[in-house]
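Objective 1b: paired records.
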Amino acid sequence: MNFIIDYEVCACFFMVIITIYFLTQKKLPTIDNTVFSLLLILLSINMIFDIIAVIMQNYKESFSIASHYIINISYYLTQAMSLALFFAYMVLQTRPNGKIPSRLIILMDLPLILFAIFALFTPLTKMLFYIDESGTFLYGDYHFSNYILGLFYIALIPLFFIINRKKISRNVKLAFFAFFGLSLMSQIIQMLLPNYLINSVTSTAGILIFFLKVQSPRNHIDNRTELFNSSAFQYFSNFCRYRNEECSLMVFSLDSLGHIDQIYGVEESRKVISQMASYFTEKYPNCLVFRYNINKFIVLSKKSRFDDTSLYEAYLNFPKKWEINGLSISSSVSIIGLNSKDVKNIDSFFPLIDFTFSRMREKSQGLYQFIDQKALVNFNNFIDVTDALVTAIENKKIEVHYQPIFSIDNQKIFSIEALARLKDKDGIDIPPEIFIDIAEKNGLITKLSELVLENVCLFLNKVDIQSLGISRVSINLSVIQFMQANFCKSILTILEKYQINPQLIGLEIIESVATSSVVDIKKMMNDLIKYGFCFYLDDYGKGYSNIEYITNLPFEYIKIDKSLIASYSTNSTMKLFLDGIIEILKKTNRYVIVEGAETKEHVEILRSLGVKYIQGFYYQVPISLDDMIDLLKK
C-alpha cells in the first residue's frame, strides 16, 4: 500500500516546534504540566515513527523485515500510549490534587495493555499487520482494532466530561470539543482512505488548541517581570493544598513601587521592576517567585520553612536603593511570612495578607511579621465579623439601641443617641468599635448608617418625643459617609419617606471628620443646618482636641469623651484639662455633653463643673427600641 505522508510531515514539523517551545518555557511544577509535556513528546515520537515507517516502505529492500516490525510496532504502541495519556490529561482537569482514582487508572490502562500485547505478538500472529518476504507492509485481519482503541478513548472522554461537567472550566470544555470533533472526523476519514495519513494533522491541531486555550505557560507569566503571576500563585497554591503539601511563603510589599510610574516614567519603572524580579530569582533560586500585584511579590518554598529569622534577614538584605541610568531610586519594603497549612483555603489568603499589612501599618508593629496563631485568630475574627455584618445588612437585621442624654438640672431626658448593635452567629454582642471599623473598610458604612436612620424614623413615628420635652435623636456618621457628594440627598430621601422633620435629627461626627477639610466640612454642615439638622462633635478629647474645629465649625453640641471623666480623680493632668476645656466651651456658647458618667461621683464632679448634660451608664445603659418606648411612657 502506498501511503501519502505529506500531511504527516507538515504536522510533525509543527508538533516538534510546539513541543520544543513548551519544554523550554518557564512552567509551574504541576502534574498536568508534566503530563502535557510527556504527551507532546510522545505525539512527536509517534509521528516520527510513522514517517520513518513510510520511508522504509519506499525503500523496503534496504531494510530487514525485523527493522520494519520494530518501527511499525513502535508506531502503534506510541499512538496507543498517546491516546491513554490524553485521557489521563483530561482526567487531571477535574482533579486539582493531580491524583487519578484507581478505577480510572484501570479503565485507562487495561485497553492499552491488551493492545500492547496484541501489537507485540503481531510478528507471530499477523493479526494487526504483517511484513511479507519483500518487506511490504500489509494490514492484518484485525487491524481495525487500532481504530476501535482510538474510538474507545475518544468516546470515553466525553462521557467522563458529562459526569464531571461542573468541575471543568469553560476553556477546557471548548478546547476538548474542538479536539473531539477533529479527532472523530479524522478517524472516519482514515478508515475510508487508509493510504492518507491525516490523524497527525488533527492531533496537532487539537493539541495546538489545548496549548493556546488551556496549557500555555504564558497564561501564568507576568509580562513585565517574567515571574509567575497572581493566577499562577492561586493555581499552584490550590494544587499544593489538595495534595496536602505544605509550603512556606514570604510576601514582600514595596509601598513606593506604585508611584514610580508617575515620578520616573513607565520605562524607568519597568527597569526597576525587572531589577527587583532578578533580585528575587537570584536570591531565592530554589523557590518559586510570583508577582502578586503591582507592588507585592511572593516567594514560595516547598523545601525549607521560613521563620522570624528568615524574615529579618530578608528585610535586612533587601536593597534600599536601585540604580537605573544614573538615577538612585529608593524603595521601602514590608514582609509577611506564613505557612500554607495555617491558611484554610486560597480564597482567604489574599484577604489575610491585606489584613495583616493593614494592621502592621495601623499598629506600627514593625516592617516584618510572621503570621502566628494569634494573628490568624484576629483574622478569622475579622472574617466572622464581616460575614455577620454583611448578613445583618442584607437581611436588615441591624439592631439599634437607644441611650438617653440627661439634663442634670431637671433629671429628665434631654435627647437620645441611636447606637448600632451587631451580634455574631452565636448571638454574642460584637463591640461597636470593631464592626464599625470593618464597615468603613469594606464600604458597608453607608448602608449601615441608613438602616440606623430608618430605625430612628420608625421610633419617631411611634413616639412624639417633643411632647415629652426631648429635643431630638442623634445618629453617628463616619468620615466616609459624611464626605459623599450625595449624602445630603440620601438622608433627606429617607426622612421624606417616613415624613420625619429634620429638626428631630442630630448628626454626630468625630473629630477626624473635621480634620479632613474645614472648608468642605463647613459647607456641608451649613447646607444640612438649613434643613433643620443640628451637629454634635463626638469624642472630643480623644483625638487632636483642636479648639479650631469648635470655633470654625457650626457644632451646637460638644460631647466630651468618656476617657476624660474616667481618669479625673486619679490623673491631675487630666483634671486640669477637663476643667479648662469645659470652661472654654462655656464661653463659646456651645452645649457640653460629657459621656461615660458611670458613678454618682462622676455626676457630682460634672455638676460642680457646671456641666448640664450627661450621658452614661449611671443613668441608663443603651436599650432596645421597645424598651426605650416603655421607658418614655413611664
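Objective 1b, second protein:
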Amino acid sequence: MADEEEDKGPKSIVYFGKDEKYFEQYCRSLDGILRTKLQRYIIEYEGVEPSKLVLEVVDKKPDLIILDFSKDRQTLVKVSFFLSRMYPLMKIPFIGFLTALKENTDLIDQMVYSGVNFLLYKLPEIEFSSVPTALMFNPDNSKFPDFYVKETKDIAAIFIPMRVGYINQEKIHVESSADILTEDLLKIKTSIFNVPVYFKKINRGVSNLYYHFPFNYDFDFHAPSEIKLMELTEENQNVAYLYEAEIEEQMKKIVENLESVMEKTVDNDKSRPKKLRVLLIDHELRTLHEGKEQIDEFSFSIRLHQYLDPRARLVEEVLPKIIFYFLKDPHIGKREIPAMVSKIQEIGEGFDPVIIVFDEQDAYIKMQNDQKQKLIEEGQDAESIIVANRYECSEAGYSKLITTKAKFTFDTLVTMIDRYKEKLLEGTADENFTVYFSKKDKESFAYMEDQWRIKKISEPFLIFESETRLPLYSLVKAKLGDVIMVLTIAPFPSSYESIRESKSEQFAIINGIDEMQQAKLRLHIHKPEKEDVKEKNK
C-alpha cells in the first residue's frame, strides 16, 4: 500500500528559466511534501525557436511545467500560449514563477491569458511555493505543515478572466472558463468601453473556441440604471420614468463609445478576422520540426494537436471547415479517424468539414470510379486526392473523408487551404459589421466581476460557495478585504471532507500572493472573530 501511495502525484517536472538554484530548492521542498522524487528537466530556451521548445517538452512527457517569468517574459508567454492549447499538453498544469515587483500587473495579465494555472512568487519561505503545488497534485498523501482553518462569512470580490473575440452593435463575443448560469446583468471590465456598461447573456456555447477556455458567450449591452429600474417595488413604480430617462441617456453614450472604438479599430487596420478554422492532428509534430512555429500568422486559424482526445471533443471545440490528419500509426488512425467522423455526425446541423488524411503508406487505399466522379462533380482535384475506404469510415456514410498520397509538409497544407478557401467560406458573411480582436490587442482582455461566499480559510487554501461554476484548475483574481491574491480551483481533498458542510462548497488553492499580501492574509486569518465583527459594523 505504501508503494502504491508513493506512485501517486507528479513524476517529472520541466523548467523554463534561469534561476536553477531557486528551482532546485523548490523541487527539494516539493519532494519532501509529496514523499517522492521528481525527475527534473531544465530547458535551455535562449535563442531557441519556440517550435523547438515545444518539441522538447513533448519529448520529456512532463507532469508539471514551470515557466519562470521573473527573467524572461515575451518568449515564455508565447510558449505558454502555444502549449496550453495543444492536446495532450493542455491537460498538464502550468505554473508561472514571478517576483514581487509593482510592474508585474501587466505581466500577470499576460500569464493568466497565456494559459498558466498557478502564479507563484519566488519568496524566501519556499513553502509558499511548494505547498500550493502539492495541494494541486496529491493533498491526501502529502506531509503538510499544520495550518489553522478559520470559519468565516467573508465575501470575496472575484475577477474571472475572459477573452474578447469580436464585437458589433448587437453583441460582444467572449470566451471564459466560467460556466455562467445567471440571467442577471453582469459587470465585465474591458478597455473597449470608457463608460459604465452592464452585460446580459444572450447564449452560451462549448464549441467554435479559439483560446484555451471551455465556454463562449454572446452578451448584449445594458445601461447601469436598468438595475435600479428592476429593483423598483410596485409602490415605487411612479418614479420609473426617471430611470427610463437615465437609461436612454446611458445607452446613447454606450452606442457612441462603441461606434468610436469600432471606427478606430478599422482605421488602424487592427481587425483581422480568421473565419476559416483548420484542425491539424499531427502525431509527429512535423509542422514544428519544419520550424513553422508561427502558425498563427496566417489569414486562417490553425489549431495544432499531437493527438485527438478520446471523445473527439477537439472537433467540436474548433468546429473546423477542414481537418488535416497526418497518419503515422495505422492502429491510432483506426481509433481516431472513426471518432472524428462520429463526432461530426453527432454535431450535425450542416457541420460537414472536409477531412484530408495524409497517408504516405497507401498500400491499402483503393480508387473507385464512382467516388472519383463524385469528387470531380464537386469541383475538387481528383488527381491529387482519393477517397479512403480504410478504417471503415466509408461505412459511416461520410463522403468528405479523403486521403492524399502527397508527402505531408506545412507548405502542402497551406496550398490545399488556399485551393479550397473560397468554397469552404461560402455563406459565412457577417450580417452586422463586426470588429475582431487579435490575442495581442489589449481590447481582447476582460474580467467578469463576481462574489464568492468564503466559508473557511487557511493560509494555503479556502473553501467557498458561488453560483458561477468553474472547471478544475481555472484561475481567477481575488480581493478579500485588503488582501490581493490569485485562486485556482482544485479537487476537494478527501482529508478535508470532514469540514465540508455541503456538496455546493468548492475548494480553491491560494496562489499569486507576494510577501506583503501573505502577511496581510495571515493577519486576517488569525484576527479574533470579535475584531472582524467590529470592523464589519463600522
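The CA atoms of residues 219 and 439 lie 19 Å apart. The mean pLDDT is 83.
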